[in-house]
Write a structure and sequence with these properties.
Keywords: Membrane, Transmembrane, Transmembrane helix. This protein is an alpha+beta fold. The protein has 5 helices and 7 strands.
Length: 224
């Protein structure tokens, strides 16, 4: 039975590791994975040459922000850790997303490393590996909670800044990587609990040796 719990926990951690890994690569290297996105009803300049087309779609990842025109052509002008991005509305008003709001996204690659350690400990044959895996998974869950709070902060700030634009109808949504973070958090919690239950089940038979039938123990003294 303990092996079943270990397998469930290891699978949950493995899936969380995969999702965290691809989310850490994110935009602009994986176009489908972004943390926040906004779609405008009119073309806007992104402060670095503009976007052509009747609509403009802007997306934010860990390592950069990209703009898409109506033909799906992508332009990524803001690259690097803690990048700054912004828009210019038809009236000429400039709205910026400061680097301080995107810098915190770098916690995701760190979380990926922690989850990888937890997976390694969960499948290791080390005597105290399962306990270490449980603690590491709990640490990863805590870091994911912080990361999710950072993602929410970025999403909320983008929504706030887009609301300042005039003569523009902007629709702000959470990106795919945003929801991946929430899934990773749940999986890490489940993984930590399953590994812990598996460890307790595995050691349950030896937890109270004085009541064991094999060794006789204290109760054997009353047997006739």
């Amino acid at each position: 039975m303990s092996r079943k719990y270990f397998l469930i926990g290891a699978c949950c951690l493995g899936i969380a590791l995969f999702l965290s890994l691809i989310s850490s690569i994110s935009l602009p290297y994986l176009p489908a994975l972004d943390y926040a996105r906004v779609k405008f009803s009119v073309a806007l300049s992104n402060g670095a040459g503009g976007v052509k087309g009747a609509q403009a779609d802007f997306r934010w990842g860990i390592w950069g922000a990209c703009a898409y025109d109506t033909d799906g052509k992508r332009t990524c002008e803001f690259l690097g850790h803690g990048y700054e991005s912004g828009f210019i509305d038809p009236t000429g008003q400039i709205v910026l997303i400061a680097g301080s709001w995107t810098r915190g996204l770098a916690i995701h690659p760190v979380v990926t490393a922690v989850i990888a350690i937890a997976v390694g400990l969960a499948v290791a044959k080390w005597e105290h590996g399962t306990l270490a895996a449980t603690l590491t998974s709990a640490l990863a869950a805590l870091m994911l909670l912080i990361a999710f709070a950072i993602d929410i902060a970025l999403f909320a700030f983008v929504h706030h800044q887009v609301g300042k634009l005039k003569e523009v109808n902007g629709n702000v949504n959470a990106g795919t990587a945003f929801w991946f973070t929430l899934v990773e958090l749940v999986l890490c919690i489940i993984g930590a609990v399953m590994v812990l239950i598996g460890r307790r089940s595995d050691s349950g038979g030896d937890a109270y040796p004085m009541f064991s039938n094999q060794s006789g123990g204290f109760l054997s003294r009353f047997k006739k």
